[in-house]
Amino acid sequence: MMLRINKERCTLCEACLSTCPFAALERVGDEIVVLDTCRLCGMCVRNCPVEAMFIEKQGEDLTEASLKETRNVIVIAEYDNKQLHPVTLELVGKGRAMADQISGELACVLMGCDCDKEATSLLEYGVDVVYLYDHKAFGHFTIEPYTNAVEDAIRDFEPAIALFAATPLGRSLAPRVAARFRTGLTADCTTLEVRENGELVQIRPAFGGDVMAQIITPKHRPQMATMRHKISEPARPRHNPGSKVVRRELTDELLQSGITVVNVQKRPPESSISDAEIIVACGRGVGNRETLGLVEELARLIGGQVGVTRPLVETGFANYRQQIGLSGRAVRPKLLITVGVSGAVQFTAGITGAETIVAIDSNPEAPIFQVCHYGLVGDLNEILPILIDSLKG
Ligand SMILES: Cc1cc2nc3c(=O)[nH]c(=O)nc-3n(C[C@H](O)[C@H](O)[C@H](O)COP(=O)(O)OP(=O)(O)OC[C@H]3O[C@@H](n4cnc5c(N)ncnc54)[C@H](O)[C@@H]3O)c2cc1C
Ligand code: SF4
Ligand code: SF4
């Protein structure tokens, strides 16, 4: 919805300026302009003596019938002009499963420069249509052409669901696309489920983690969410006859950008806890640097990396890059050993993909024992030396 002023009718009496409780109207020359602070309360509309103001509805609510019709799923690939980010195949895997469940088709938007090969490769993973935007303007991420391209694909494909990666690129792009369609967006979902009627249930911790919120978008389409890397299984190769790459027309309007990329400096690649196959994650129960040393020794002996809970980062015991959880990294190791970690929902949000979880904690009621596969109840100061000795022995 948007406040509009009919300039033909407006007599510039300025009555609305003093009516607005949010100082959201201003006279600029011969017109009244609406500022960003407008809350659409409608007071000015009611008080305008010549009925020059009105609130325009955009993106009308969907009817029952049109809600049922939109059943396609679209995912936005992430490509750095060398390779597809691994989260792309996770989005494709999730999108394919959803599309199958609601009998829809799956499309993938790919933006880049000289990326025919990557577009074709996506067809091998169950994508029905790849919307390809191949131009040097997509050689680096610039927000306007990227937003225009995704908008173009969504208008053409009319999906019920649009999934983005919860990466810096996806987190920047998704809100702009959502604003264009005046639809809802849930960021950093830890679980995504789709109901038979095509409704997307977007699950993520809310209110400081006190609840796992189930968020739905009942009246607008597409339903949009960002999904974190390592939260979902990557797509597997799948024979998909009839799938195709659609090379979209690139108009000047679509490519226009107010940003010129002058130079790009890549950060040197750093090893990430997200890629580790074995992790020993320690929490506040570890208590001091000496015990942290035992955790590091255990990790070294089993060829793993050390991960931590947020309190250890906050107290300066560890680096943020080691933090696992909602505001840290999501991980999918084959083996995760937690030591003195209670298992708060913000931590477990980052370990849903771990294959085997072994928990060590002195409190038998700790929530971590509800998510682990093997639990050791006891003092970590006793258990760690025994484990280390047996591995050395
Ligand atoms: C918006 C938001 C985002 C957040 N994001 C994250 C996040 O990304 N990652 C994260 O980890 N947290 C995050 N948190 C914090 C989270 O809520 C918890 O506070 C945190 O995970 C708890 O860390 P912990 O398990 O190390 O500490 P605690 O909850 O204090 O648990 C310590 C555990 O150690 C055990 N223990 C103590 N002594 C011993 C011993 N001698 N032997 C064996 N066990 C022992 C205790 O029984 C206890 O279970 C976030 C919070 C908010 C509000
Ligand atoms: S109250 Fe109505 S007529 Fe007067 S300035 Fe505002 S919009 Fe124009
Ligand atoms: S709709 Fe309400 S907030 Fe917006 S300009 Fe009018 S009075 Fe101000």
Summed up, what is this model?
With 393 residues, this protein is α/β, with parallel strands linked by helices.
Give the N-terminus to C-terminus distance in angstroms: 70 Å
Q: Radius of gyration, rounded?
A: 26 Å
**Strand tally, please?**
19
CATH architect. name of the largest domain: 3-Layer(aba) Sandwich
What ligands does this structure carry?
Answer: flavin-adenine dinucleotide, iron/sulfur cluster
Biggest sheet strand order reads 9-13-8-5-6-7-14
Q: Domains counted in the coordinates: how many?
A: 3
> Which CATH first-tier class of the largest domain would you pick?
Alpha Beta
Helix content: 25-40%
Question: Which shape, going by the Cα principal axes?
Answer: globular
Integer average pLDDT: 91
Major sheet: 7 strands, parallel
Strand fraction band? Answer: 15-25%
Low confidence ranges: none
Q: So, the CATH homologous superfamily of the largest domain?
A: HUPs
Given the helix and strand composition, which structural class is it? alpha/beta
CATH topology of the largest domain: Rossmann fold
Number of helices: 13
Any chance you could write out the topology, listing elements then pairs?
Elements: E1 2-5, H1 15-19, E2 25-28, E3 31-34, H2 43-47, E4 53-56, H3 64-69, E5 72-76, H4 87-101, E6 106-112, H5 116-123, E7 129-134, H6 143-157, E8 159-165, H7 168-181, E9 185-189, E10 191-194, E11 200-206, E12 211-215, E13 223-227, E14 244-247, H8 252-255, E15 278-282, H9 289-301, E16 305-308, H10 310-314, E17 335-339, H11 345-348, E18 356-361, H12 368-371, E19 374-377, H13 380-392
Parallel strand pairs: 5-6, 5-8, 6-7, 7-14, 8-13, 9-13, 15-16, 15-17, 17-18, 18-19
Antiparallel strand pairs: 1-4, 2-3, 10-11, 11-12
Helix pairs in contact: 6-7, 9-13
The structure holds flavin-adenine dinucleotide and iron/sulfur cluster (2 copies).
